[in-house]
Amino acid sequence: MASVPRLRTREKTKGVFLALPAILWLGIFFLLPVILVLFVSFLTRGRGGVGTMPLTLANYERVFEIFSGVLTDSVWIAFQTTVICLLIGYPLAFFISTRKQAWVRNLALFMIILPFWTNFLVRTYALQTIMGREGTINSLLGTLGLITEPLQLLNTSGAVLVGLVYGYLPFMVLPIYASVERFDFRYVEAAHDLGANDLSAFLRVVLPMTLPGVIAGFILVFIPTIGAFVTPDLLGGTEGIMIGNLINTQFKGQGNQPLGSALSVVMMAMVMIALLIYVRFGDRRGI
Amino acid sequence: MADSALHSPPLHTGQEIEFDRAKIRRDMIIRRIGKVGMAFNPIFAYFFLWAPIIILVVFSFNNAETVSVWRGFTTQWYQNIFTNALSAGTESARFSTEIMLTSVGNSLFVALVTTIISTVIGTMVAMSLVRGNFPGKSVMDAVLYLPVVIPEITQAISLAVFFRIVFDFVNNANDGLRAAPGFGTIIIGHVAFCISYVTIVVRARFADMNPRLEEAARDLGANEWRTFWRVTFPLILPGVIAGGLLAFTISLDDFIVTFFVSGIGTTTLPIFVYGLLKTRVPPEINAISTLMLVASTVLVGVSLIMQGRNAGKN
């Protein structure tokens, strides 16, 4: 018993050395850079470099004056993407988790995961070839005689939407699948016995009980699509510009890094709001 | 329900049946809509996910420069990739086998170093989170999830700003030394998000493990070091390998962080492909993409088998 207090003090720092490399790496190369961006976003645009003193709010004024349209567009596209992913993903997760044989279930899941692990650029390019002026859709419709002129599919905000849904659908399916898999279908039988039809059994029993997965999926799709860059860049052209493209222009093109930083901070703030909602209502086990 | 029907007066029962019939009809319609929707949804979803990929692979064998019309089978583009025999006489002479192979080499180098560093660090922190107990553990836990959930572009430009400031500082301090972005900056960025993925996978493996096995080893006189290498490590090894393969795949495929922190002469394969897509798209691109698809499929397959073996053992 005498050793208990000594053990206690040791227990208080147990494993801290194992965590140290990760703490240092993430502290220096993840958290510190984020803090620096916050700082730079208040600087004045400088010559060549990152920015100079004095501190100013002008960058944020510009963000909200000039780019407010793109900000709201981005949020709107991300929201549409998330809702479409939900409408496709929920029944799909349901379909996968209700397969009886384990191998069918695993195959169905594998068929969702595999496209998700193939290179994002390659997948986006695949959509580009399909939606192009001489792409598969246009040549198919032309052969069928449904159109005489090729449709303008690429370089529209619709193309961005399709690309985002295509890229992020697995993020919606997987957490919902995790929720539905845990769901006990005897609850549905109980609801039917109590006189509920399929619709009210779904709305009042299934949906509330799988809601944590839905919220997790909602956040996991919404957050990365708000910051999408490759999809609007390759599919949207000048029509489907999102915040990611603006940030890219500020860092690669004109080089107004304080302005780009302010854009990034605004995006991070939106992400943090979404994350707080998730932590409050979501289910971590879903990931 | 049957009970109440028995005790009700006959006239009333008739009305009730009338009412029930309408309700049943409505319920059946709802059920049918649900059934049709549920049958149609997976067909549409899988078609949507796979059609672009299948079209890409099929047209990588197309005997034509255009990507949409089938003109017969060829392996020409695959040969071009490896023999430097460019699709001569066309605009697409931008494509260079030499540059592509260099970028593949760069990608593999970055992915390999990233995997080694992030697997070691990620496994250590997974162990400390599962077995350890220190102040700030829950904060560490939350911070570890951040690189996975926040948009990659915020991480990318944060690192870009960070390196810019550090390099400006270093270059001002030393007149002779010229620090510039390169492999180092790419690897640092990749490790920063790969640690999280390794930790999540290894941690899941730890959660499935029976801690009594470690206690037994201690009771038999093994010290902590020996217990780890003889008992713990063999048990978590499938998780460590799965996490490492995940880190390798993610690093190999990464575009955004690399795009913002890489310098001159450190082009990775995704950066190379992006360059091709942004300029003139050469016909070889379908073949390159198909090869990249095959490579990811193999890596993910092995990783999943490893994780599956995890679950099987318990």
Short description:
The complex is a heterodimer of chains A (287) and B (314). Chain A has 13 helices and no strands.
Walkthrough of the structure:
The complex is a heterodimer of chains A (287) and B (314). Chain A contains 13 helices and no strands. Chain A has helices at 4-12, 16-40, 58-66, 68-97, 102-117, 120-131, 136-143, 157-182, 186-193, 198-226, 230-236, 243-252, 257-281. Chain A is globular, with a radius of gyration of 24 Å. In chain A, helix 6 runs parallel beside helix 11 (230-236). Chain A has one domain (68-286): Orthogonal Bundle (MetI-like fold), CATH 1.10.3720. Residues 1-7 of chain A have low confidence and may be disordered. Chain B has 314 residues and is mostly helical. Chain B has 2 domains: 2-59; 95-313, MetI-like (MetI-like fold), CATH 1.10.3720. In chain B, helix 3 (76-83) packs across helix 12 and helix 4 (97-131) crosses helix 7. The longest helix of chain B is centred in the N-terminal third of the chain and has 50 residues, at 10-59. The two termini of chain B are 48 Å apart. The model of chain B is unreliable at 1-5 and 87-93 (pLDDT under 50). At the A-B interface, helix 2, helix 4, helix 5, helix 6 and helix 7 of A face helix 2, helix 4, helix 5, helix 6 and helix 7 of B.
| Sheet with the most strands, sense and barrel status of chain A | none
Name of the CATH architecture of the largest domain in chain B? Orthogonal Bundle
Largest sheet of chain B: none
Find the structural class of chain A using helix and strand composition.
mainly alpha
The number of distinct structural domains of chain A comes to 1
End-to-end gap of chain A: 42 Å
Largest interface: A-B, 87 and 90 residues
Query: Quick check: average pLDDT of chain A?
Result: 83
